[in-house]
Specification:
This protein is an alpha/beta fold. The protein has 14 helices and six strands. The protein folds into three domains: about 15-80; about 115-265, Dna Topoisomerase Vi A Subunit, Chain: A, domain 2 (3-Layer(aba) Sandwich); about 290-335. α4 packs antiparallel against α11, α5 runs parallel beside α10 and α12 (about 290-310) runs antiparallel to α13.
Length: about 350
């Protein structure tokens, strides 16, 4: 939603035109179901040769975007901050509302009975929502490390992955990170540290790879000379590095989805989806029962019991009340009674 908080929008014609282009890019990705981060928007402008790839330009874009949003030119929901997220405990309006939530959220383990345990590990939190669209669909765990993983996170991974290995499953980690000295070294780090705990996982670099750089031509960055791993990196790849954020979201989505589908039994997966739908239908029946109808039924059954206990009761009244109760159950539980 666009909402204006200031009418004081003093900027050059070039910046006004740039805001129009920003809105076009935002709508292009919104149509595909994506909400961009500031950095993803920045790389879109760099890749379209609108701005140079420089830290100063990134900061200027942040200022411009703030002015555009405050002036009601850019939609407030168009840019996502995936780090500063407020949290509120779940609540429901009433029991019926809670049952409806259960029916909508219900799902089975879609990876059940697969002979492989897949996890997606990502170097950057900024990409978490793009990746979660895929991992949520296939019920694959997403692990965001924010750089090198901590010892605690590695031990937690050992506990769940060793359990999968004990069940005879192959463990595969699909890794997403920058093509720079630290980003590539994290592949080794993940593999070595898991092996210290006795977990032998296949760590697969899904993005960003040299082949993808050649295919998609993301904007280059200078390799970080201060990185202690820079020497080995520069010896192989030269002085240039690339950020995985620069890949368009739909490209990253496709890469992860293809990597998952290559490794799972799709028949088992779709079988779980079918069972989910059947279970949801049953849950929706319960969720659709109105509290008022239940109270009416309670009163009908109560009256029916009282009349049945009265030897002088009119048999016709008892039959009518029984028929009303039966009709309610037939309507409310039709799917379950079939």
């Amino acid at each position: 939603m666009k909402e204006m908080f200031t009418s004081d929008l003093h900027m050059s014609r070039q910046n006004k035109e740039r805001l129009e282009l920003i809105n076009d890019i935002i709508e292009e990705y919104r149509a595909q179901g994506y909400v961009l981060t500031l950095r993803q928007l920045y790389y879109q402008l760099v890749s379209r040769d609108v701005i140079p790839n420089a830290q100063a330009e990134y900061k200027k874009l942040g200022v411009l975007l703030t002015k555009g949003r405050m002036a009601g030119v850019v939609d407030w929901d168009a840019i996502e901050d995936r780090v500063r997220v407020p949290k509120l405990p779940y609540y429901a309006e009433d029991i019926s509302d809670a049952l409806g939530d259960i029916a909508r959220q219900y799902r089975l383990d879609r990876q059940a009975e697969q002979d492989v345990c897949i996890e997606v590990w990502c170097e950057k939190d900024a990409l978490s929502q793009v990746l979660y669209r895929v991992t949520e669909e296939y019920h694959v765990r997403l692990m965001v490390n924010r750089g090198y993983s901590s010892t605690t996170a590695m031990h937690d991974a050992y506990e769940r992955l060793s359990e999968a290995e004990a069940e005879g499953k192959e463990v595969v980690i699909l890794y997403v990170g920058d093509h720079d000295p630290s980003g590539l070294d994290m592949l080794r780090d993940i593999r070595d540290r898991l092996e210290e705990f006795g977990v032998f996982a296949e760590v697969v670099p899904v993005a960003l790879t040299q082949e993808q750089i050649e295919e998609h031509n993301p904007p280059p960055n200078p390799a970080k000379i201060t990185d202690p791993r820079a020497g080995d990196y520069i010896a192989v790849h030269g002085n240039t590095s690339w950020e995985v954020d620069a890949l368009p979201p739909q490209v990253l989505h496709k890469l992860i989805e293809e990597a998952i589908l290559e490794r799972i039994d799709e028949d088992l997966y779709t079988g779980q989806l079918d069972r989910e739908e059947e279970d949801k239908k049953a849950l929706e029946v319960y969720a659709g029962i109105d509290k008022k109808n239940l109270l009416n039924l309670h009163e009908t059954l109560k009256s029916l019991k009282e009349n049945a206990e009265d030897a002088d009761a009119d048999v016709g009244i008892i039959a009518a009340q029984a028929e009303a109760a039966l009709t309610f159950f037939n309507v409310s539980f039709e799917d379950l009674l079939e």
